[in-house]
Specification:
Blueprint (H helix, E strand, L loop, with lengths): L1 H14 L3 H10 L13 H7 L2 H25 L4 H16 L12 H11 L1 H18 L2 H17 L7 H16 L2 H9 L8
Helix pairs in contact: 1-4, 1-5, 2-3, 2-4, 3-4, 4-5, 4-6, 5-6, 5-9, 6-7, 6-9, 7-8, 8-9
């Protein structure tokens, strides 16, 4: 029980680092939650603070998820249950960070990091779909939804003998990430979702 609590708390705290908020505050002296879409995530930093800052925030957020899972797998004998718990906690920390009154990002970057650590082929497929979709539509939100759905689907056809639990957990995490985009879906339906300038 102590091991489970330790993994959960540490992974949550890693995931909860409010990267977008910190970058916006340090680089521009603004509260990212009061600018752009109001979401403390990489895309809003990309639009509000700058492209380079947005890319760096995305990479750091992805590393939060990857390192949380990777380090747990290294220190706890690669027990998949602990790795999955770590991934869930890291994404939970990012989406509901204690440092921003439990109002964080949408989990795309951190989720990508988690999947890269668990099922790298699924993550690679998701990244490929994201960039193709972004090139064609210029909508980050729609591309994120498409790529997240692809990750979930590919996970079920992943090569090798992977436990059913991995597929179920990743599918549920992908569902949570997609649901976090509900406001984007409403704006897309109304034609009000802003496109990104690459």
């Amino acid at each position: 029980m102590q091991k489970i609590l330790l993994i959960t708390i540490m992974s949550y705290l890693v995931g909860s680092i409010p990267t977008a908020y910190l970058f916006a505050k340090i680089l521009k002296g603004i509260d990212i939650r009061k600018h752009g879409s109001g979401n403390p995530g990489a895309t809003n930093v990309f639009r509000t603070v700058g492209k380079t800052a947005g890319v760096i925030v995305f990479i750091i957020d992805m590393l939060k998820g990857f390192l949380a899972v990777y380090l747990v797998s290294r220190f706890f004998n690669a027990d998949i249950n602990y790795s999955l718990l770590s991934g869930i906690a890291a994404i939970g920390g990012h989406n509901w960070t204690v440092w921003l009154s439990f109002k964080g990002g949408k989990g795309v970057a951190t989720g990508a990091g988690v999947v890269f650590a668990l099922l790298p082929i699924s993550a690679t497929a998701g990244v490929a779909v994201f960039f193709v979709s972004l090139f064609l539509t210029k909508y980050v939100s729609l591309s994120s939804i498409f790529s997240t759905a692809v990750v979930a689907i590919v996970s079920w056809f992943y090569p090798g003998n992977n436990p059913l639990l991995i597929k179920i957990v990743i599918t549920l995490l992908c569902a949570v990430i997609i649901l976090r985009h509900k406001n984007n879906l409403v704006r897309l339906a109304k034609g009000e979702e802003p496109k990104i300038k690459l």
